[in-house]
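> forwarded from #structure-qc
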């Protein structure tokens, strides 16, 4: 990866969005944020990104809807798209991976969990 690492955090909850953004900032990432799926898709149409953290439960488009659209439109090619959710029952994990997510990050997130995820995806420093 050359240059700065860029992430988009998509979550309808302000506190969750800020927390994820702060953890990524501390890990050296440049972070943009979106409050819903429509805003996220608009942003992804015009910007390069290496990582998308997508909340699953959002009003309007769900994280799964957004992920399917990202893959269908071939947006942010090469970027890792992560489902970021409190629900991660085994059958839900399968469903998320089937939508095109690269990984699942379980809320509540922590610094250690975030760094683990980045390393697993080959995006660690
Ligand atoms: Mg939500």
């Amino acid at each position: 990866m050359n240059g700065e690492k860029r992430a988009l955090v998509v979550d309808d909850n302000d506190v969750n969005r800020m927390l994820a953004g702060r953890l990524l900032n501390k890990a050296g990432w440049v972070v943009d944020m979106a409050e819903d799926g429509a805003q996220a898709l608009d942003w992804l149409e015009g910007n390069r990104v290496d990582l998308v953290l997508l909340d699953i439960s959002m009003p309007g488009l769900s994280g799964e809807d957004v992920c399917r659209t990202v893959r269908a439109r071939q947006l942010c090619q090469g970027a890792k798209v992560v489902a970021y959710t409190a629900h991660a029952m085994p059958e839900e994990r399968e469903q998320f991976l089937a939508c095109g997510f690269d990984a699942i990050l379980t809320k509540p997130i922590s610094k250690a969990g975030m760094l683990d995820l980045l390393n697993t995806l080959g995006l660690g420093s």
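QC bot note: Residues 11-13, 55, 57-58 surround magnesium ion (CB under 6 Å). Helices lie at 14-26, 37-46, 63-72, 90-99, 111-120.
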